[in-house]
Amino acid sequence: MNIKVGVYSSGRSISDLRLRVSIHSSESSLMEKYKLIAKIKKGVFQGLCLLSSQTVTLKQLGFPDNEGVPGSLIKEITLLQAMRHANIIKLIDVVNHQEQSSIVLVYESMETNLTSFIRIYPKVMKIPRTIKELLRQILLAVSYYHSFDIVHGGIKPANTFIDPATNTLKITDFVWPRTLFNSNTEDPNEELGFCYKAPEILVEHKQFSTAIDVWSVGCIFAEMVTQKPLFSATSEFHQLAKIFSIVGTPSEETWPGFSRIYRYLHIYSHCKPKDLRKLVPGLEPAGIDLLHKLLYMDPKGRITARQALEHVYFQN
Amino acid sequence: QDEEYLRILLDRERDRNHIRSPVDDWIKVARSEAIQWIINTRAFFRLRFHTAYLSVIYIDRFLSKGLISSDKNWAIRLLSVACLSLAAKMTQLKAPALSQFPAEEYNFESNTIHRMELLVSTTLDWRMHSVTPFNFISCFIPCFCNESSNREFVSL
């Protein structure tokens, strides 16, 4: 790396001094180190590392205003750098790009996400042991995030990657959804992300905890068994009604204080919880019990990722 | 729980890059001027002491890479502004606006500070979570005071 700080003076008084920091390594290095192969979606590209011939995912992040590198981004990249877990997609590199108006995060790349894995290998997904092993790996990743007090906020099958050769599972996309989530500019084309959103997120956008990720894991668990989304509504608006229709409309007993959090509760008709054994057929009783605990409506009563790993479902 | 936290802090502290390169005299002078500016600016913005300390760690880590080659006072000042801004963004809920930094005789545009922030972040490999003595204080205070509630009263 060859970085130099240079000064370009107009030759007048010191206050007129025009300073330019020229970073020789940055502008060219992205293209020197990586070759773009394809655009995946806005700001996300598939690339090839020229040094290692490894396929990578490149994510370009722009800076919203003239206030330098956003604090949230500095904290997130610092955390991502510190994270090392077998079930989390690794951040390989951070590169400055385009005259420092954006940065590019370089991640290791995996081809098959859970959605396509279920489609390509429906028989493998029918094996209870496979489901158990994949769920265990998701929970390991989630409890690792939570041990850093990080809320992923966007866990869904499209963000969950599997290596078909080893059945190793890794989750990703943690900078993107959370940043977007905060700025409330979520990509409208984002593939049915709301199906995996916890009820407390759907009613109250500001207050959320690590429990929202646990709910998403519950949704994915059911989907691995039945091979279709459990709460598949047509829009975010209908999502809550769909959840109530299956888990039951919250009452003072099942979710104390919910009517105060959510003023529109009276709009929804009163539903009794449905029998998960019928909705998720083929799942062993211990699995049904764990699913109940993952999809517990009141976030305060929901099981944690760490507790879930110790559930009897994983004991045999 | 506190013991576990201490263990993590110690691991992280041991992990950090030590400053090895021999330091020129002009850097020593420039560094102490930079620290003086940071102390004044911390008071000006009423930033936490922790923030000021963290920014000095960034400066030392950056200088140890030897990227600033000769006697360039403006570069040291620009580095101080960028490091204090980055440290504020890491540790404060609200960081000062780039245009508010009192660079005194130098007039840096926000865009210039932004570039310097990026240069510093990249040079430090985006490892901005350097451990400072302040991280340890909240653990040690209850040991001395015997009352955990006191840890909130100490100005950090």
UniProtKB/TrEMBL annotation, chain A:
UniProt key word Kinase: yes
Keywords, sorted A to Z: ATP-binding, Cell cycle, Cell division, Kinase, Mitosis, Nucleotide-binding, Phosphoprotein, Serine/threonine-protein kinase, Transferase
GO molecular function, one term: cyclin binding
UniProt GO BP: cell division; G1/S transition of mitotic cell cycle; regulation of G2/M transition of mitotic cell cycle; regulation of gene expression; regulation of meiotic cell cycle; signal transduction
InterPro entries: CDK, Kinase-like_dom_sf, Prot_kinase_dom
Catalytic activity as recorded in UniProt: L-seryl-[protein] + ATP = O-phospho-L-seryl-[protein] + ADP + H(+); L-threonyl-[protein] + ATP = O-phospho-L-threonyl-[protein] + ADP + H(+)
GO cellular component: cyclin-dependent protein kinase holoenzyme complex; cytoplasm; nucleus
Enzyme kind, highest EC tier: transferase
EC id: 2.7.11.22
Domain Protein kinase span(s) in chain numbering: 34-314
Alphabetized Pfam families for the sequence: Pkinase
PROSITE patterns from the UniProt entry: PROTEIN_KINASE_DOM
Statement: the UniProt record of this protein carries the keyword Signal: no
UniProt record similarity statement: Belongs to the protein kinase superfamily. CMGC Ser/Thr protein kinase family. CDC2/CDKX subfamily.
Protein's name in the database: cyclin-dependent kinase
Species in which this protein is naturally found: Lactuca saligna (Willowleaf lettuce)
Organism phylogeny: Eukaryota, Viridiplantae, Streptophyta, Embryophyta, Tracheophyta
